[in-house]
Amino acid sequence: MSQTEASKLPKIPDSEPDGSKGKGKQQLETYRVYVVTWNVGSRFPENISLRHLLGLQDVTVDKDTKETNAHLPDIYALGFQEVNAQPQQQVLGLFKEDPWTHKAKELLRNYDYVAVKTEQMQGLLVSMFVRRQHVEHLQDIEAEFTRTGFGGIWGNKGAVSVRFTLYGCGLAFVVAHLSAHDHMLDERIEDYKQILENHHYHVKRYREIYDHDYVFWFGDLNFRLQGSDSSTEVRELLRDESQHEALIQRDQLYQVREKAQQAFQVLQERLPAFPPTFKFREGTSEYDLKRRPAWTDRIMYAVQPLNRQPGMQLSIEQCSYKSHPLYTISDHKPVTSDFTLKLYPNVRAPGVVFSPLSLWKIGDENTVEYRKQAEFDEGPNDWIGIFPAEYASLADYVAYEYVNQAESPTSSDSNQVPDPFETPSHHRSGRHHHRNRQRQRRHQEANAQELVRLDFADDVELRHGEQYLLIYFRSTGVRGVTSLAGVSGVFVAEKRHGSPHRTEYHVD
């Protein structure tokens, strides 16, 4: 199936047996995941477009409705290696806005994607983007990293990952950069084993990488060709299409995964039908014969088909797998793969439901009201953020308030601002507002739901006439594991007129 054909795949419900954990009957639906890996060689994304790389070159979008002329991926997983990690870039990293994530975000926001999590370890980077309609269903988002290079000291080699649960299934996205050079095969195998041994999550049922229903493992894995051919001889063989199959059979990753089963044997991969993606002379698509051409940049996947509902097996298909030779800033070519997979859209975690709020009075105290569903387990570090209605990242909040005031930082900690996934820090411009008086009221209702009212202080700085919304973050307080428990409708902020007063929800 071509990438164009895959892009037109609808979400088609499969069989619907009884026994759903959500409303109505259980079902499977098809979703799309688009994976990118690129060793960018410390280059910056200046003067290049990512539209072709992200498969958007033929996609048009209606600016008003945001409808497109193609069925877009539900998830983008972007993995980069050798991202510039000089000190000035590490400062940028404090703001969770490295140049590559920023470049992708500014493009993908036009197609209604939200940056949900980024994890960076030195030059190794993974950035996850999800279509807006799925964001509020993301559960247990967690990032992890493992160093392998130089005894795990420098972090120049290893893996970073993001995992989350969506529609009843656990997904893990692992980006790796393994040891280089032809003769370092044993070290690459050892890198893989170290990552598995040291990469752990803090989510029930999904403690290890391969516990997940779906695993995507990609990056500059640095596997080379077996044999003693010279660089020139390999290049000449590549010019003969009839020799492609023989060359790929000599690929070290193919050998250790399929033949010897020393590493990555749990994963699957459609063998590359594209030319080797390393090593090129920068600025060209000509091989640099200082190294033998090799398929160093790879994308693999795994599925645990029986992890969930009996008789409703999960499945995945690798619909496209290709390189992008038009990108020449690095000595590697980027590689992408388009997948379809099955999820359970009726499986929804319990959460909170915000009452409608049409207007936020700037300069007044405003009261947020929501109902906790009976099964919702409130965490000690939960907080509610105010976001622009067209937010492009979960780090885009402009103000926030902790749900449990007794658990929140005191006014002396007012310089602390939460990263949605980490311990509060001072790197964002959002503001936390704390008052000594009780600003939270709770009422237990007959249906076992709890009605909660939470006051936001009068110095929340919103822009007059702009639209905003609220997002409830459930934080376990353990290694940044975070879930989204509810998203409000859109409301407008307006400047105060007349004497100060408190603006509250009014429930019809």
Automatic annotation (TrEMBL):
Instruction: Write out the biased-composition intervals (Basic residues).
Output: 426-442
Entry's Gene Ontology cellular component terms: cytoplasm; plasma membrane; ruffle
Q: Which SMART domains match?
A: IPPc
Give the region (Disordered) as residue ranges. 1-25, 408-445
Start-end of Basic and acidic residues biased regions: 11-21
One Gene Ontology MF term: phosphatidylinositol-4,5-bisphosphate 5-phosphatase activity
**Compositionally biased tracts (Polar residues):** 408-417
* Positions of the Inositol polyphosphate-related phosphatase domain: 29-347
For this entry, list what GO says about its biological process. phosphatidylinositol dephosphorylation
Under the heading Pfam families, the entry gives:
Exo_endo_phos2, SKICH
Q: Which PANTHER family match?
A: INOSITOL 5-PHOSPHATASE, LD06095P
Q: Which family does it belong to?
A: Belongs to the inositol 1,4,5-trisphosphate 5-phosphatase type II family.
What's the protein here called?
Answer: Inositol polyphosphate 5-phosphatase K
**Organism in which the protein naturally occurs:** Drosophila mauritiana (Fruit fly)
